[in-house]
Amino acid sequence: MRKLALPDEILLQIDKPARYIGGEKNSVMKDKSLIDVRFVMCFPDLYEIGMSHLGIQILYDMFNSFEDTWCERVYSPGTDLDAIMREREIPLFALESQDPVKSFDFLGITLQYEMCYTNILQILDLSKIPFDAGKRTWDDPIVIGGGPCSYNPEPIAKFFDLFYIGEGETRYRELLDLYKKDRAAGVSREEFLHHAGQLPGIYAPSLYNVKYKENGLIESFHPIFDDVPKTVRKEVVEDLSKTYYPTRPVLPFIKATQDRLVLEIMRGCIRGCRFCQAGQLYRPIRERSLEVLKQYAKELIANTGHEEICLSSLSSSDYSHLQELLLFLIDECDANKINISLPSLRIDQFSLDVMNKVQDVKKTSLTFAPEAGTQRLRNVINKGLTEDDILSGSKMAFEGGWNKVKLYFMLGLPTETEEDIKGIGKLCNEIAKVYFDTVPKEKRNGQKIQITASTSFFIPKPFTAFQWAPMNTQEEFREKAYQTRCGILETLNQRSIKYNWHDTDVSVLEGVFARGDRKIAEVIEKAYEKGCIFDAWNETFHYDKWLESFDECGLSIDFYTTRTREDDEVFPWDFIDIGVTKAFLLREWKNALNEKVTANCRAQCQGCGAASYGVGFYCPGGK
Amino acid sequence: MKLRVRFSKFGPVKFIGHLDIMRFVQKAIKAAKIPVKYSEGFSPHQILSFAAPLGVGVESESEYFDMEVTSLDGCELFKGDLDAQMCEGMSILGVYLLPEKSKNAMASVAFASYRIVMHREDAKEYIGKAVETFKNSEHVLSYKETKSGVQERDLKEAVLEIGVNSKEIYFTVDASSGGNLKPATLMNALFKPFGIELKPWDYQIIRTEVCRADEQGEPVPLIYGLEQLS
Ligand code: SF4
């Protein structure tokens, strides 16, 4: 049996020791003596959160299918264990072998959200790996980042040797082969990074030099060697039906945040909402074939005995075989006593029928994401969901017995006015009205209509039409949340409407990191030294320490958040080519300001640039 | 039809708590394609009953759960099929047929046996003396703080058997729902006379058997008298 890195004494005193022992079903053990490359994959957050993530499972499955590679996992230790590890100088270890992270060849860190940046430093710190990539030696693993935040890696570039830009399934084999070759040849770490930086999809920050203008904007961004490409092009999987899929996922003992099987049905999104980063990053749209999905579903169910399965994609309603897939799943899951957790589908008769079959109508709610309160603003953000869609969908659902509706909105969208904010309350009120008109008193069975409106604060993200847009100030956000609440209270049916919103401090930081440059690294390091960690959690978030850190580094938050960008500004992420062109995004930014709607990919190709991959489901020349 | 399943739990999985083990076993039963019976409704669940919950950190040679199945077809393979779905440190030891009228595993538990491997050096030399002292005392009182004040209990009444075997302490104690004696409580009482305050990690507890009471009130394993299917 494996020997654990932590003694019983520690494991019996910390919260959820199961986070740190590995040995879960389907976790992979290999014989170290037969392995050339040891890779440890890190999700820099608590185990329960990291274990909910499909991307890591895909890569874990892929790496471990390579005979010469053993891929293990590591997550952020909770603050209780963190303190003990520091006090006793226990190095951070991987779950499977329980070996120190520092002894690995690669440490891969997935970057799913900006607010995990200090956790990356915790991982490096506890592993005793220098923060500054330039100070590392062959005694340290190659630290490589990937995932959505690597599309603007600059704020954390200093901490990474490499970034993998794009979908992980395509180039890792080449990178590992290069590593084996270079290590056998005895080359220096710098030389290896230089070679790696020439592989498609691989960005080695140390190979590029940034010059800033006096006003803080980027003057130039250049490779320091002639043989290193000026732009790094995103990697995409050509055929989703012919790639890796974890049909034997690791099953955590403790409940993961998302405790269910995941069937990823497609990548990309036809919709083109202008605030949405994922919608652009994962273009072009690629679907998995129905046959392959049926096969995966069967294997997942057989291999795990899980009690719940869900579909994953950015917009499942747009999957071209959705009906067939759902009907198949309903039968399969019924036979195996498995729950289907439905993604938020566009509300129509079909989706309501499906929901009716697999959920308890009384307990579940309908979900709409209008994102904005008026049609005008929905046109600005290109959200093709009309008030009529929402009201007629609600009517249908109320007739079917539903009485809970959840609505998601954003505050702080470009061009937003008071009327748009008032529109949130009005829309909720209309829905309540539809309920009272549709469901006669005697049929309500003492039930009430419950409408929940939630707002989040809009944060402009790279590679969206709104990458040029100023973000609101905190005062504006607070004022808008207040106005939203007043707007709701003014409506006739306000008693049926509940309003949720979150505080703004974290949003401000997220805004800085999202569009930050290399200068931000120093702030992150300072804040970490002051004790910032797990910034996504309220209890551990210390805004004051962050403000101090910005001050000490002489950097202004507003420069990154509330400033309006000129059309021709050089962005820190411009060297990354995601297929979708900057010219297209700029056109979309102008369309937004003119309140002009752009058709979705299925209706008419808009020439976004992603067709250049030659594999898009709807793209001209695609598949 | 009801079946009783016996399993063991050793090594790192000892840190997995009772509820998580239950969820794990449910998945294993499903993956093993055992024709287990489900409840009705929107989220059907398996009809299972676990015997006495095992504390975090405790290992076991003999744990039990009951499950209801819709058919006994292929029951000679149930043990192997279930065992194939276990993780490192957990093994299925046997599957037994439970007569229809029997009480479920949880309700049947009356006693549990344990053995203790002492890790702490300065406590090792007192093992024999501690057990002797306990045996020779008329009462061994233990105090527990509860909401309604401090509760006194005479551990002598809760311990059926105690002894030392190749440097390990072994004992059988009350494990009924009303009177369950935690092995740690007994360990603390055993070593207190020698001024040794034990911490939970100073020794390893291994449960060796979970028992019901037979007609004479004597402990017999939960599978005593049951027909073994696989
Ligand atoms: S090239 Fe056209 S069809 Fe393809 S993703 Fe872009 S807009 Fe959509």
Question: Could you name the key traits of this structure?
Answer:
heterodimer, A: 623 residues, alpha/beta, Rossmann fold, Transcription Regulator spoIIAA, six-stranded mixed sheet, four-stranded parallel sheet, 34% helix, B: 230 residues, alpha+beta, Alpha-Beta Plaits, 2 domains, ten-stranded mixed sheet, two-stranded antiparallel sheet, 7 helices, binds iron/sulfur cluster
Helix and strand topology:
The complex is a heterodimer of chains A (623) and B (230).
Chain A: H1 8-11, E1 37-43, H2 47-50, H3 54-65, E2 69-75, H4 79-88, E3 106-110, H5 117-127, E4 142-146, E5 162-164, H6 172-185, H7 189-196, E6 202-203, E7 208-212, E8 218-223, E9 232-233, E10 261-264, E11 266-267, H8 277-281, E12 286-287, H9 290-304, E13 308-312, H10 322-336, E14 339-341, H11 349-358, E15 366-371, H12 375-380, H13 387-399, E16 404-411, H14 418-438, E17 450-457, H15 474-489, E18 497-501, H16 505-514, H17 520-529, H18 543-553, H19 557-560, E19 576-577, H20 582-593
Parallel strand pairs in A: 1-2, 1-3, 3-4, 4-5, 9-19, 10-13, 13-14, 15-16, 16-17, 17-18
Antiparallel strand pairs in A: 5-6, 7-8, 11-12
Helix pairs in contact in A: 5-17, 6-7, 9-10, 10-11, 13-14, 14-15, 17-18
Chain B: E1 2-9, H1 18-31, E2 48-50, E3 59-68, H2 78-83, E4 90-98, H3 105-108, E5 111-118, H4 121-124, H5 127-136, E6 141-146, E7 149-154, H6 155-158, E8 159-165, E9 168-174, H7 183-191, E10 203-213, E11 219-221, E12 227-228
Parallel strand pairs in B: 3-10
Antiparallel strand pairs in B: 1-3, 1-4, 2-3, 4-12, 5-9, 5-10, 6-7, 8-9, 10-11
Residues 283-284, 601, 605-608, 610-611, 616, 618-619 of chain A line the site of iron/sulfur cluster.
Describe this structure in words.
The complex is a heterodimer of chains A (623) and B (230). With 623 residues, chain A is α/β, with parallel strands linked by helices. Among the domains of chain A are: 8-233, Rossmann fold; 260-359 and 576-623, Transcription Regulator spoIIAA (2-Layer Sandwich), CATH 3.30.750. Chain A has 20 helices and 19 strands. Chain A has helices at residues 8-11, 47-50, 54-65, 79-88, 117-127, 172-185, 189-196, 277-281, 290-304, 322-336, 349-358, 375-380, 387-399, 418-438, 474-489, 505-514, 520-529, 543-553, 557-560, 582-593, and strands at 37-43, 69-75, 106-110, 142-146, 162-164, 202-203, 208-212, 218-223, 232-233, 261-264, 266-267, 286-287, 308-312, 339-341, 366-371, 404-411, 450-457, 497-501, 576-577. In chain A, the strands form 6 sheets. In chain A, strands 2-1-3-4-5-6 form a 6-stranded mixed sheet. In chain A, strands 15-16-17-18 form a 4-stranded parallel sheet. In chain A, helix 5 crosses helix 17, helix 14 packs parallel to helix 15 and helix 17 packs across helix 18 (543-553). The longest helix of chain A has 21 residues, at 418-438. Chain A is globular, with a radius of gyration of 25 Å. Chain B folds into 2 domains: 2-108, Alpha-Beta Plaits, CATH 3.30.70.580; 111-220, no CATH class. Chain B is built from 7 helices and 12 strands. In chain B, the strands form 2 sheets. In chain B, strands 1, 2, 3, 4, 5, 8, 9, 10, 11 and 12 form a 10-stranded mixed sheet that branches. Chain B has a two-stranded antiparallel ribbon with strand order 6-7. In chain B, a hairpin with a 2-residue loop joins strand 8 and strand 9. Chain B is elongated, with a radius of gyration of 19 Å. Chain A binds chain B through residues 1-2, 4, 7-9, 11-12, 17-18, 21-25, 251, 253-255, 302-307, 336-337, 339, 358-360, and chain B through 10-13, 15-17, 20-21, 23-24, 26-33, 38, 42-45, 56-57, 85-89, 199-201, 204. The site of iron/sulfur cluster (SF4) has 12 residues of chain A, from loops. The site of iron/sulfur cluster has 12 residues of chain A, from loops.
